Amino acid sequence: MSDLILLGDEAVARGAIDAGITAAYAYPGTPSTEIYQSIEDHARRHKLPIRGFWSTNEKVALEEGVGVSYAGCRALVAMKHVGLNVAADPFMNVAISGVHGGLVIVVADDPSMHSSQNEQDSRYFADFAMVPCLEPANQQQCYDFTREAFELSERLKVPVLLRLVTRLAHSRAQVKLAPSRAPNVPQYVEEAARFTLIPVNARRAYAQLIDKQGPLQAYSEAHPVNALTLNGQGKTGILVSGLAWNYLNEALGDTMGNYNVLRIATYPLPVKKIRQLLDASSDVLVVEEGYPFIERYVSALGLMTERRIRGKLTGDLPRMGELSQDAIRPCFGLPVQPALQLAGLSDVLVGRPPRLCDKCPHSDAYIAIKEVIAELGAGVRVMGDIGCYSLGYLEPHQAIHSCLCMGSSIGMAIGAAHAGMTPSLCVIGDGTFTHSGMAPLLDAARENANIKVFILDNSIVAMTGGQPTMATDEEVVDLVAGLGVARKHIRIVEPTAHKKHQTIATIREELAYQGLSVIVARRACVTYAKEIKELKEIKAHKIDVAVVSA
Amino acid sequence: MNFDLVIAGVGGQGVLTIAAVLDRAAHEQGLYFKQSEVHGMAQRGGAVSAFVRLSDRPVASDLIARGSASLLLSVEPLEALRYTQLLKPDGWIVSDITPMLNLSDYPDLAKVHQVLFSAPRLVALDATRLAHKAGTIKAQNIAALGAAAMHLPLPMEAIEKQIRALFERKGERIVNANLHAFRKGDAASRFTVALLAAGIDGDTVARVVSHIHFPPHPVSAEVTAEWAQRLRAPDDAAHWIAQFAQQGELARLETLVAA
Q: Looking at the 3D structure of chain A, how many domains does it have?
């Protein structure tokens, strides 16, 4: 039987390692975090010379990956779906420039929003950028498709997007590995024009990207996983992609043979096969995980009257959330199975939402902030951000009033202040601050905006499992000061019950000041105390090494 | 053979450890499996679940369909109730009775137990205390796993082997504590199944079993039969339930037999 038990994320990681990557970069985000994590762990354990790290943000991670590709080597870049928004600029443009060494961007979507603020479907991004997208349906395909993506990337000189979804990223199964391939020997791009997208070059590059669409189309048409099974003229057709294949399989079981079925695992869409399916079928059900991406194309937004196309747009399948066998069965008139019924269940079944850990420094920070703003009467709003401290929205704190996207709290506080909101407060963690909070703080500093920024510095990226933060302790203060915030309005408090009165006094003082204040609530995460200590030692060691080398 | 198992609990209670033990045991037995789990935000003290799907043929879906799980294994009683819609009408529930009280609106525990104890095929045990008696309260999840073992399509030895492998680096004491917890859980399950087979009402069985300090081996057939006899008449059962409840601590069967 098979070799290893791997998560979907881990299978991608092993696929990349065995494909001979020279480097990998990522920003942590559920459900993609374990991809880079396991590359790093594996490389360390087996002393492989794979470079890379947790990058400052997804944009930087992708640019680092493009640099590796420019040098003729292979790179994997991993992020969650909303991370691709951050990396959209290099993503769209490396599609134009094309790649040199193989470049694969793994993006993990989160249908049902288990740990995210939206369910955006990354296939749209691949389509938008005109690059191929591979969509594995199981852990074995995670491994195989990652390796294939590198081959495709180098053959057609395009970046390749590998799309995962939560249920695959975080599900384990057995995976068979294939012999590994040696990394590329560095060989820089000879022609500077290729990666220099000034208009004269960009026009040529864009024309080349358009020319690549033919071979990409041919690749999809010929791909063995994009299998068309015709079981009879005039039968109902099913167009199924990615993970939805598994659910369809279980929903229909042996009755699958009563339908014409086209399975899709690669994009651009294999249009010739879709044409054959339409010609052979009376009507077509489109089953896909995520947005109705294929359905919109095939049904032409419902304008296509030649064949009836059913799916998420028509309400035959749920428009939101992840699919399941149970969501699909009603489309075929199949009942869902009876389950155990217990009397009185609904009377006792209450939700158990996540919460901040016991003794979490964020709790003490929120207690102090809430106490001060309560003195100011009702109506004070606190802009929140993304991290463990987003849980401050929930009971018992209910201390934040927004959570839009990474780094948004500071910009929103500036805007709210401009609109007349006083005081205008926001909270952001140390990791999110360096990810994308520094640019808006520069805006605030430039005009000394009357906002109060709380940086909750717990020395680690905690929500995703304890990845290293880019800056903590005095580094945060130096960054803030370097962006132009007056030193005397950068205050440091220790969020503990013991020091609550001092914290509150400091906040009151800064609220009295009409201008930009940054209050750093500095106390290490209790859950990752051990990791923080190790990370600080590693960082100190790297600095020592650099000094010695110098 | 297809066997779907839901594992439930609260972030930090070792749900994923149970899943990992079963994955490896299934893999070694030459079975196919898929096992999906929850990471990220929910792990911060929220509801956590893992789905384990075992089969002698490749498994397609990572999710368990409604009404198709054969077993629901929970390390917390309220969390057991959260997934009953995935369980077959005749599926087994194995649950610790000890609540994780990190909720401001945790429902009345007596009511939670009442609903849970109405399940027709239930092993309700005090996995937390059994683990404590076995040597470490952290083995709560393994005690619960022990209570599930006889209902799984995997040999006991295969599971024990993976428990040993998992805790090996923590030393012999921890390995033994976990193996004892596992066997105590198994004893609870076998005792429960025998009482239910003898026709004792499920609620009674749950209320008795969840107060017993089981040994790390199955209770003898004689002692089991004796208890089935004692609990047969409703009045006697009520008496024994009251006796057990009064004890507060877990009671050894032998001491109560002697009394």
A: 3
